[in-house]
């Protein structure tokens, strides 16, 4: 019996609604598999916790989390109780940084039963590998003077290690998919870092002769996400470029409620973290209509991460069948509740064996 210990942080708002439904789905996956067991330990760290304790998690929170196989997170943020920069930096961003989750992966695919804003979605199925620890999002730089002479300098940091790490991850992923990697560059306009990015890409790609490659400037690449997303398999991008591209990825799928993300730790020293792209959605909290698919799809990514890819694929197929049959929440044009969608996924998982 394979056993996975998972730390669960439902967090705020609809996180507390979509996480329990997703755990039920994971329990069902384990039951159907027979040789697999999940042990969940839930932590109440959230904005409400902050109001009670003056911090988002206990001092030794990270030490506690470190012992788990992975972290399954809902959403953080309740601006009515705690300012967003405090809640996000006090928990989510802290975990990403301290646990060296240097890669952020975000898939986007044409989803049966969903209305894509694209006229002809052409069955796109892509995944963005975003460098998650450096690049444009650095604290290097500063501001001086006030008034007319005021000046701000923001440096981007690209290390050979960090760049290679993201690219190798993309190539390894492509080998398991359709064998194609696209590099997001801008070496025609950015003088130092992007020619460096291209150089590293050209070296790394030599190690993967069986993988096809392409390189596009980020502006053209962003346009292609809209006009012909079907040409992409894996895209490797810097922190900022990846951030922007994945919002377009979510948009062409049709709803933020279904988009998943994974923060991957590659050195094995710390757990990885799985979360949906969406936030705590205060506007629909308590109504029972939050779409659980983003959270359930991130559970699928966790299964992949554990090496249970076959199970992951089965789960995604079932989610898509359920959506295609119209059992869906109002954000994607249905009338079902969060629980109804979850229960139907569980029912079909059992049938799929
Ligand atoms: P949001 O993603 O929570 O909501 C944006 C819109 O999408 C809302 O209209 C919401 O109802 C809808 N929506 C989101 N998820 C949905 C779902 N699963 N089903 C149906 N509809 C869904 O973003 P917003 O409103 O900007 O932020 C709300 C709070 O969440 C803030 O405190 C923010 O800081 C936090 N946040 C946290 C994130 C995280 O924990 N990773 C990511 C984004 C925002
Ligand atoms: Mg973003």
UniProtKB/TrEMBL annotation:
EC number: 1.1.1.83
SUPFAM superfamilies: Isocitrate/Isopropylmalate dehydrogenase-like (SSF53659)
Gene3D superfamilies in UniProt: Isopropylmalate Dehydrogenase
Keywords for the protein's UniProt record, in alphabetical order: Manganese, Metal-binding, NAD, Oxidoreductase
PROSITE patterns attached to this UniProt entry: IDH_IMDH (PS00470)
Isopropylmalate dehydrogenase-like domain mapped to chain residues: 5-345
Cofactor(s) of this protein: Mn(2+); Mg(2+)
Catalytic activity: (R)-malate + NAD(+) = pyruvate + CO2 + NADH
A molecular function GO annotation: magnesium ion binding
Protein family membership: Belongs to the isocitrate and isopropylmalate dehydrogenases family.
Name of this protein: D-malate dehydrogenase (decarboxylating)
Organism annotation: Cytobacillus oceanisediminis
């Amino acid at each position: 019996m394979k056993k996975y210990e998972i730390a669960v942080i439902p967090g705020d708002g609809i996180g507390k609604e979509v996480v329990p439904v997703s755990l039920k789905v994971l329990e069902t996956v384990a039951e159907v598999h027979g040789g697999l067991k999940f042990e969940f330990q839930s932590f109440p760290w959230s904005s409400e916790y902050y109001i009670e304790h003056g911090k988002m998690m206990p001092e030794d929170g990270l030490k506690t989390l470190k012992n788990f196989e992975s972290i399954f997170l809902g959403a953080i943020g309740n601006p009515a109780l705690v300012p967003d920069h405090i809640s996000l930096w006090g928990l989510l961003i802290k975990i990403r940084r301290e646990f060296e989750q240097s890669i952020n992966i975000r898939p986007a695919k044409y989803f049966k039963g969903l209305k894509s804003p694209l006229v002809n979605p052409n069955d796109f199925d892509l995944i963005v590998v975003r460098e998650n620890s450096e690049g444009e999002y650095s604290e290097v730089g500063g501001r001086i003077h006030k008034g007319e002479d005021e000046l701000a300098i923001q440096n981007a940091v690209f290390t050979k290690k960090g760049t290679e790490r993201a690219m190798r991850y993309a190539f390894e992923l492509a080998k398991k998919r359709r064998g194609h990697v696209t590099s997001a560059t801008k070496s025609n306009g950015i003088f130092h870092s992007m020619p460096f990015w291209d150089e590293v890409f050209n070296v790394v790609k030599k190690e993967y002769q069986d993988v096809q490659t392409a390189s596009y400037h980020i502006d053209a690449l962003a346009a292609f996400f809209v006009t012909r997303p079907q040409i992409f398999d894996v895209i490797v991008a810097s922190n900022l470029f990846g951030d922007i591209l994945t919002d377009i990825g979510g948009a062409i799928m049709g709803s933020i409620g279904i988009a998943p993300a994974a923060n991957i730790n590659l050195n094995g020293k710390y757990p990885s973290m799985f979360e949906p792209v969406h936030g705590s959605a205060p506007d629909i909290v308590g109504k029972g209509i939050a779409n659980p698919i983003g959270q359930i799809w991130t559970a699928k990514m966790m299964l992949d991460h554990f090496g249970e890819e076959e199970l992951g694929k089965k789960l995604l197929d079932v989610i898509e069948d359920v959506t295609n049959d119209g059992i869906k929440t109002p954000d994607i044009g249905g009338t079902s509740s969060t629980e109804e969608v979850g229960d139907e996924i569980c029912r079909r998982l059992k049938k799929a064996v």
